[in-house]
Design goal:
- An 8-stranded antiparallel β-barrel has the order 1-2-4-5-6-9-10-11. It has a two-stranded antiparallel sheet with strand order 7-8.
- It starts with a helix and ends with a strand.
- The protein has one helix spanning about 1-15; strands at about 20-30, 30-40, 45-50, 55-70, 75-90, 95-110, 110-115, 115-120, 125-135, 140-150, 160-170.
- By secondary structure, the chain is mainly β.
- The chain has a single domain (about 1-160), classed as Porin (Beta Barrel).
- Helices cover about 10% and strands about 60% of the residues.
Length: about 170
């Protein structure tokens, strides 16, 4: 079942355009470690903002493993996600700064992680804001910092959510 969901999410992320890159993500918050692999599509759309900045929209699909940092009967779960991303970057030679934001959907394999964090629904919303730098002659390697949050958006209580800070190491094909 999990493999089927993961394959569906990744194919949705790739359907608009060919896969354009992969990221390894590590985050931590609320006594939970988050380890993820993301794939990204090519840009769906680009807008030039003046002479120095560009805004682009693309999609990501991810599979994440959450592991509780405290002793509990509910130590781990899987998170499958798909989301659009808006990225503002300043294309130029050398190092390129960027800012990004995203809001998408998540499907959790279990509804509880650690002793006190129980989600009332397996479906969750996820958002992040972040900033980073792109390196290399084609800006094909990136390092970013994000603030991420996953919750059901008040669909049903309890709704504790999970907030974490993450680091993303990116490579574009």
């Amino acid at each position: 079942m999990r493999s089927l969901v993961a394959a569906a999410l990744l194919s949705l992320a790739a359907s608009a355009h060919a896969l354009d890159g992969v990221s390894l993500v590590y985050g931590e918050g609320n006594h939970v470690g988050v380890y993820a692999v993301e794939v990204r599509s090519g840009d769906w759309r680009r807008w030039q903002l003046g002479e120095s900045w560009r805004l682009s929209a693309y999609g990501v699909g991810s599979v994440a493993y959450w592991r509780a940092r405290e002793e509990s009967a509910h130590k781990e779960l899987w998170d499958f996600a798909i989301a659009p991303v808006l990225r503002l970057e300043r294309p130029r030679e050398g190092v390129v700064p960027y800012f990004e934001a995203s809001l998408g959907g998540h499907l959790l394999s279990k509804r509880q992680i650690n002793g006190n964090r129980e989600f009332s629904t397996a479906f969750q919303f996820g958002e992040f804001v972040g900033a980073g730098l792109l390196f290399g002659p084609r800006q094909d390697v990136g390092l970013g910092l994000r603030l991420q949050h996953v919750s059901n958006g008040g669909i049903k209580n309890p709704n504790p959510g999970l907030t974490f800070v993450s680091i993303a190491l990116q490579y574009r094909f």
